[in-house]
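User: Sequence in, structure out. Go.
Assistant: Echoing your sequence, followed by the structure tokens.
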Amino acid sequence: MSSNIRTNGINHLALSTNNMKEQIEFFSDVLGMELIALYWMHGTEDCWHGFLRLNDKSALAFVFNPANADAQMQYGVTQPGHMMGPSAPGTMQHVALNVDGMDELLNMRDRIRSRGVNVTGPVNHGFANSLYFQGPEDISLEICTFEGCDTPVGPKDWIDPEVVEIAGISEDELARYIKPAEYAGQGGAVAQPPFDPNGYNPKMPEDMLKGILAMPDEMVTQMLSEPTAPSQMQKT
């Protein structure tokens, strides 16, 4: 195990949907992603969770909640509607998926077009070449590759001082963002910090949240875990 604890990739990105079958059909047929899980979402009544494989360590996921039908899509708020459009802070602007090299990028363009879906590109961004298209429920999508590009992505070439200044980032902060402090961890021994009403908290009743945060970690694990796969549940 590394002596510096840090995240090393996206395990899964979960998108909300009102049509699970349409999303699975699109991402499996148009993009070739394998369906690896579809089950009742743990701890959330009447919701489903679907996973489509990206690689052995990451997936694209969808969540169906019956209440999604009452949540109206609004361009410029819930989603941009196209790659250059705005959306509300905290919402997803677009999803970019990876392929390895220009040959795969062009062959993926062929696959997408062969399914009757319009796709533009490749567009050379200097550090990546990209294709652009829309998916079901107007998800803005990109396929890109870092390979074979003019200037590989990295802070030396791709951090613009003008944008740094506009973002309000100081020189000291920039240095810290480029090289975050290392942390070795304490084997899970660090206690829950005190509740801060102004912190990054789930939007639920405060008393409920405080109760969850006050529980020992072992109790939370015991209460909320559902490790039995659907195939095993059907056998019992």
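User: And one key feature?
Assistant: The mean pLDDT is 93.
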